[in-house]
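[#protein-structures] MJ: dropping Guanidinium exporter here for a structure pass
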Amino acid sequence: MSWILLVVAGLFEVVWAYSMKLSNGFSNFAASAVTIVAMIASVVLLSMSMRSLPLGTAYTIWTGIGAVGSFVVGILFLGEQFNVVRVTAAVLIVAGLVLMKLSSH
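AK: finished. C-alpha cells for Guanidinium exporter:
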C-alpha cells in the first residue's frame, strides 16, 4: 500500500507543477487552487508512505516521478523541446528510480 500511496503522491506532484505553470504566477485563480490542493495531497500522501518506506527511497521516488512526469507533460502539453539529451536525462532518472526500488526492502 505504501508504494501505491507514493506513486499517487508523485502523480500529484506532476499535477501541481503543471497547474502552477498554468497559474501564471498565481494570477489565475482556478489553476492556483488546483496547485495548492495538489501540493497538499502530494505531501500528505508522501508522508503516509514514509510510515513504512525509508526516507531516502520515498523522497527519491517522489521527486523522480515529479521530474520525469513534468518532463513528459511539458513535451506533450506545453511544446517543450524534445531531443536526445533531454530524453537521455529522463531515462537516467528512471534508471535511478528502478535501482532505488530494487534496493529497498
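MJ: nice. The chain has a mean pLDDT of 94.
AK: one more thing. The two ends are 14 Å apart (CA to CA).
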